[in-house]
Specification:
- The chain is α/β, with parallel strands linked by helices.
- The protein has helices at about 10-20, 40-45, 50-55, 60-75, 100-105, 150-180, 190-200, 220-225, 245-255, 270-275, 295-300, 330-335, 340-345, 360-375, 385-390, 400-410, 420-425, 445-465, 470-475, 480-490; strands at about 25-30, 35-40, 90, 95, 110-115, 125-130, 140-145, 210, 235-240, 255, 270, 280-285, 305, 315, 320-325, 350, 380-385, 420.
- It is about 45% helix and about 15% strand.
- The strands form 6 sheets. It has a 5-stranded antiparallel beta sheet with strand order 2-1-7-6-5.
- α6 (about 150-180) crosses α15 (about 385-390), α11 (about 295-300) crosses α13 (about 340-345) and α18 (about 445-465) crosses α19.
Length: about 500
């Protein structure tokens, strides 16, 4: 790029109307001999000098003066005799002995260099442009310094605003969900398809098999089917097949007659009879003992039961919903579950995906639980945007049940009015170098635990990446923040 030679008036005009008013980054101009002819206020502020001291002086002398002043101010006696001829500049991993401005004088071309500034430690982009006269003689070099650390901070702020917009959308969705008064909270495609399926099958009497990992909300889906069915005004009974001992399960389901066995002093009505006309949820159906499976199959086929010790066939009208976290089809292949019973139960299959596969549902669910427990414990705590972002990006191996328990802990424990990312990591157990085996860790206050976690996080990032710039990049924060925190925390070696 070519420019006309600037006169002193031209420079003054540029200073008054462009550089001083519009550009806040450091700028300086040297002539063909390397002497300073102009710099803006930001440059003087950075190098802590004035026009009277800098103009007309060689650029290398100006840099030497600023560095000596920096060492004096910071009481660095052992470097007071530094040889500025050995001062090197780092362009990424390449070291050179000259600044970009002086290199342009030699090479007569535009040069850009990314480096850590030796005064403030910030990562900067230095760009120097040659300015030629009409005879193609280089007369000036124009140098512009951009603080990349500041650009990184702007990017972080923009990213934060984007996350806030997403959270606002999630909150609006939460309001929509609560207005619809549906317990099936979320707006993922997977959940939307389940909602449609619930609406379709609720009005029928077909048997339904709900599958999914522990904690995904199988009971909630079953209750929603019942609530939208024609039997909603009839009994709804839930039995956990895994929670009742095998020796008692048969009598619980089918009841018994007086004298049927020792201790049967009077007739007992079973759960099938109690649910007559309504709906019976057989949770954890995979745990149903093999010897009881034929009897359940007969109930589904014949629509009648017999109490233990009884001879009378009792007709029943019960809709069966079964739920399990096991692979029943695979269990039929190994003989652990009867295939004929499986197909009788699996007329309408509904599979609920784990939370890690439908992250769109996590924040709406978290907000529902947050409001629920805030009201329950009369809490005024709030969730920060970073906390919600961290919640959304956790895998939640325990699914909705784990999420609900974690939210309840956040509401109950600690004095902080705002739950942050560090609090979330603490409550879900994702601490760096966890102190689970340290007996003193349990005695820390929440504030102390968060500070401990933050120190470990910064220390580990510095040890892994070696520089404050790289550590800041890995932790998605600014380099000055890492420097400030490391100093405050007493981290001096890594």
């Amino acid at each position: 790029m070519q420019f006309e030679v600037m006169s002193n008036n031209d420079i003054a005009y540029l200073n008054a109307f462009v550089i001083s008013n519009f550009i806040n980054e450091p700028i300086h101009i040297i002539d063909s001999k390397g002497n300073m002819v102009f710099a803006n206020k930001s440059w003087y502020d950075l190098y802590d000098t004035t026009p009277d001291m800098a103009i007309g002086k060689h650029i290398q002398d100006n840099i030497e003066s600023s560095l000596n002043y920096y060492m004096d101010v910071n009481d660095i006696d052992n470097l007071s005799s530094v040889d500025m001829a050995k001062l090197s500049y780092t362009h990424l991993d390449e070291r050179c002995s000259k600044s970009t401005a002086l290199r342009v004088l030699d090479e007569k071309r535009k040069i850009s260099m990314v480096t850590d500034h030796y005064l403030n430690g910030h990562r900067v982009l230095v760009t120097s442009n040659p300015i030629f006269d009409d005879n193609q003689e280089l007369v000036y070099v124009f140098t512009f310094v951009q603080d990349l650390s500041r650009l990184s901070e702007w990017h972080r702020q923009l990213d934060e605003e984007r996350k806030k917009n997403q959270l606002i959308h999630a909150e609006l969705e939460y309001l929509r969900q609560t207005q619809l008064n549906s317990p099936l909270t979320g707006h993922s495609k997977t959940l939307d398809s389940i909602k449609k399926m619930v609406t379709t099958v609720a009005k029928t009497d077909a048997s339904i098999l709900i599958t999914g990992e522990s904690g995904v909300g199988k009971e909630v889906v079953a209750k929603e089917i019942f609530s939208n069915s024609l039997r909603k005004d009839k009994p709804y009974i839930t039995v956990n097949c895994a929670a009742i001992p095998e020796t008692l399960l048969e009598s619980e389901l089918f009841g018994y007659e007086q004298g049927a066995f020792t201790g049967a002093t009077k007739r007992k009505i079973g759960l099938f009879e109690l649910a007559n006309g309504g709906t019976l949820l057989l949770d954890e159906i995979g745990e149903l003992p093999l010897k009881l499976q034929p009897k359940l199959l007969r109930v589904l086929q014949e629509k009648e039961i017999s109490r233990i010790g009884g001879q009378v066939k009792i007709p029943i009208d019960v809709r069966i919903i079964a739920a399990t976290n096991q692979n029943l089809f695979q269990m039929t292949q190994t003989g652990q579950f009867r295939s004929d019973l499986y197909y009788r139960l699996n007329v309408i299959p509904i599979e609920i995906a784990p939370l890690r596969e439908r992250k769109e549902d996590i924040i709406p669910l978290a907000l529902v639980f947050w409001e629920k427990f805030k009201k329950k414990y009369n809490s005024e705590k709030t969730l920060s945007a970073t906390a919600l972002y961290t919640i959304e990006n956790h895998d939640w191996p325990g699914n909705i049940r784990e999420l609900e328990n974690a939210i309840e802990r956040m509401v109950i424990i600690g004095d902080s009015e705002v739950i942050t990312e560090q609090h979330v990591l603490l409550f879900i157990g994702r601490l760096v170098d966890s102190d689970e085996d340290d007996p003193e860790a349990e005695e820390l206050s929440l504030q102390e635990a968060v500070k401990c976690f933050e120190k470990k996080l910064v220390q580990k990032a510095l040890e892994k990446h070696g520089t404050t710039y790289k550590a800041a990049k890995a932790l998605k924060t600014s380099q000055p923040t890492i420097v400030r925190k490391a100093q405050a925390m007493g981290i001096t070696k890594w």
